[in-house]
Structure formats: C-alpha cells, structure tokens
Amino acid sequence: MVSLKQAMHIEMFFDKDSNTFSYLVVDGATQQAAIIDPVLDYDAAAGAVSTEGADAILAFIEQHQLRLVWILETHAHADHLSAAHYIKLKTGAPIAIGEGIRKVQQTFKVIFNIADQELTAKGDYFDHLFADDERFQIGNLEGRVINTPGHTNDSVSYLIAGHLFVGDSLFMPDAGTARCDFPGGDAALLFQSIQRLYQLPDATPMYMCHDYQPNGRELRYLTSVGEQKQQNIHVRADTGSEDFVQKRTERDRTLAVPKLIYPAVQVNIRGGQLPAQESNGTAYIKIPLKNTESLMDG
User: Fold this and answer.
1) What is the model's pLDDT at position 5?
2) What is the C-alpha to C-alpha distance for residues 222 and 123, in angstroms, rounded to an integer?
3) What angle do CA 42, 85, 180 make, to 5 degrees?
4) CATH numeric code, 8-276
5) What is the mean pLDDT of the chain?
6) Is 250 a residue whose pLDDT tops 60?
7) What phi and psi, each to the nearest 5 degrees, are found at residue 13?
8) Terminus-to-terminus CA distance in the chain, angstroms?
9) pTM over 0.90
10) Residue spans per domain, the chain
C-alpha cells in the first residue's frame, strides 16, 4: 500500500500500442489521487475498444484504497483514445481539461459534421475547464495549470507539487517537441509555451506523455527542465523563435498523419465518450474522405 508517510507518490502506466504514459498522482497523507491521460485500448482493424489499461489503473486504486478526485487530460489526443469517460463511470471523479478544448471542439465539429444535439462545442462532456494559472488540489498537493498551446489549442501542462506533466508539448530531449500541423497548431505559439516551462527551476522533474525510443534506446518517461534546456534537439535555452519555427515546420512536412487521429479525436473531444449509438445499436467512427471529386456523380 502507498505509504501514508510519503507526501507524494507517482505511479506510471505505459500503453505500448500508442507509446503513451499515464500517471496516477497520489497524496500519501490523504490517499487522494488524480489520473493524468488515461488510455482506452483500441483495435483499429477490428473497430473494437477494451479497457485493460484503464482497469490496471483502477485495480491499483482499489488495491491501495485510494480516492480518485480528478481525471486530468493534457489535451484532446490524436494518437490514442481516452479512457476518461470509462474511469468516471467507475469512480465518479470529474474530468478536467484546458478551456481551449472549446476551440478544438469547434474545429472538429465541422470536420466531422457533428450535429448540435450531440456536441455544442462549449466544453460539453467535460466537468471542469481549467483557466491558465488555475490552482487545484489533490488532497494536500497543490496543482497549477500552465497553458501550453501550439501542438493543439487546448494543450496544458500540470505542475503538481513541483512535478511537471507536459502532455505532448515536449518529448525526451533526443526526440524534441510535438508537431504543430494539426488544425489549430502553431509552431510560434508552441515556442512561447515552451519558454514558459523553461522558466521553471532547472531541477523540476518533467514527465513525458510519450516516448518513441529514438535509435532504439531504452524507454524513458522522466527528464528535467534543465536537461531539456541543455539537450532538446529542437529547442534548447539558446534557441531562437525563428530557428525553431523553421525547423519545426520543415519537420512537420515530412510526418505522416497519425494512424488513429480520426477515431481518437472524435472520442477525445467528447471526454472519452464514444459517439452515440445509431438505430441499430452500434456506434460508428467517421473518417472524412479526400480527393473524391472524380468519383462523385455530377
């Protein structure tokens, strides 16, 4: 059981299929906890969802008699489906995300042609929308929200008792930074967001949301502000904005569309809730088709 003498405990869970880290942050004094970026298992070929990864987190919570008080999303992910809604159903904990989710919902509501009765794009499906610099509690642990847009409009980082959870804004130093070519992405804005993070003390531990293990190295999920400032291949402490934007833009032009972007975003702008079932009792994921003009009548 998590020691009551330990002021803070961080448990990492790794989803190998999407290279995603989820974290359970525990206040040892009160046994209150928060989950950051939980993953819903998804088999794209079969169109099947399952909950093994989320259930492992829930089992840890039950085993250690913890009380979940927050489900925290760093943004509406494009590379995995969120298990936030499932965990809320099991625990009653509220789902929170940055208030920029409204812009993301507005953008993708149009792309997916989602009806008003299913998505108003006003932050629906989420229980709380964090403002920049807003504070929150996990027992005796204080969290602070730092808006870090650029990868997406809704990206935030969570600074909890001096530990920083950055979502996709930064990767390990040898992998650089997040792409900025999604709708609403902006490399210049990401550079500004990273500068905010680089103002934190160098010793601040920084927890990754993903690690793609460049050059086959071992898996890593933890670095520091100081290590990023010295070694990040895209943006060190002495990197200028124009240089970063040029390199980030050139890099983005070479990247393939994430294989799960359409199912992931459709689910994640709904806080992990699946699209509504249709008249036959089945829920469907939409995939917008492109370059169809020559195949259409008229």
Assistant:
1) 59
2) 31
3) 65
4) 3.60.15.10
5) 95
6) yes
7) -125, 135
8) 67
9) yes
10) 8-276
